[in-house]
Amino acid sequence: MQHTGAKDTQLRETSNQKVHPQPMEEATNQNPEAMENLVSKMFTNISSLKSAYIQLQSAHTPYDPDKIQAADKLVISELKNLSELKHFYREHNPRPVCVSPQDSRLAAEIQEQQSLLKTYEVMVKKFQSEIQNKDSEILQLQLLIEEATQYSSLELSLDLFKSAVEAASTAIHDFSKPLINMMKAAGWDLDAAANSIEPDIVYAKRAHKKYAFESHICQRMFIDFQDESYSIKPENPTQVPNESLFQQYLALREMDPLDAVCQTPDSAFGKFCQNKYLILIHPKMEASFFGNLDQWNFIMGGGHPRTAFYQAFLKLAKSIWLLHILAHSFDPPVKIFQVKRDNEFSEIYMESVVKKYSIADGDEKPKVGLMVMPGFWIGGSVIQSQVYPTGIKVTE
């Protein structure tokens, strides 16, 4: 037994194929600075991995796909660095040649590789999920585009245009209020002003003279409505290349009118606002309101002031402009029609702004006194003109 053991010992000492590494404690003692540096790098890497994981967590609240993707890459990078440190250590501290399948270090390595593989699998699934979300967003946008391009259905188009007409009518009514208030504050004779717009109208009530001012606003704002460009020539006609009128309608509908004219003051809409203000508000009226022509001259020079009065006007201008580009989006375009004073009142083509009334002179039909809002032909349908009839008695 002793002889055999001695022989085995000799064989092990002389064999060039089986060399046992030095124990970890011995290697550490021989090069303590290298080991200390390795441990320091490992702890630094772990801290970086923790920081990357925290960034990944915070990117989910609120959900930010770009930050999540960047944090994911950072986590993977730190995991790779940690794996490289492990391999560096093993290269300088090799395992014995004779390794048992149950070796704990080998098992740990296998487990680490499996964990890393799971991490990659999770990342792949997340990227696949993000791709699916993007595909879903693209599909939704395509559906919205299709819906927007299919607006020409008669029922939808008629409802949409009716809503735009109602919005324009409301805007005329709303702007007449500050206009009348400014006239009162400036000492205007409102009876004389209403009579100068349309003389010798017999109003059922004195308060109905407000319709004269609404009619004045309407007449000025709808000049050249049937012309596709509204007789407005922007300085830069290629500002919105290849953009359909309906797309312009959708874009402007969601914008504040002041933002729209300030962003592109030389656009068709910007020029429209300037021109219509100068047509609607006479210099004498402007001077009586503000004591000077500073605002009027500023607009005349191509500017858009931020005064409350001009912003109120912009809301009116936006509603009329939207109605115009929507009307010209149809094929064929919507046609406008106006009624004149003394035309016989027609319940087919006209609607009275006075809702409750009776005929004042027996069986004689009322006549048109003022047109407050024009009418429109769209396809085979009629949107009635709004008028103030004469020869009526108010029953409300």
Largest sheet: 3 strands, antiparallel
- Number of DSSP-assigned strands: 8
The chain-level mean pLDDT equals: 82
The largest sheet has its strands arranged as: 1-5-6
Order of helices and strands: HHHHHHHHHHHHHHEEEEEEEE
Give the structural class. mainly alpha
Our Rg estimate from Cα atoms comes to: 41 Å
Strand content: 5-15%
Helix content: 55-70%
Give the CA-based shape. Answer: elongated
Number of domains: 2
Question: Terminal Cα separation, in Å?
Answer: 129 Å
What is shown here, in short?
Helices cover 60% and strands 8% of the residues. The longest helix has 46 residues, at 104-149.
Overview of this protein structure:
The chain is mainly alpha-helical. It folds into 2 domains: 21-146; 154-394, no CATH class. Helices cover 60% and strands 8% of the residues. The protein has 14 helices and 8 strands. It has helices at 2-14, 24-30, 32-58, 65-92, 104-149, 154-185, 190-197, 210-221, 245-253, 257-263, 268-280, 283-290, 294-300, 308-327; strands at residues 335-337, 350-352, 357-359, 367-373, 375-378, 381-383, 385-390, 392-394. Residues 336-388 form the GIL1/IRKI C-terminal domain. Residues 1-11 have a biased composition (Basic and acidic residues). Keywords: Coiled coil.
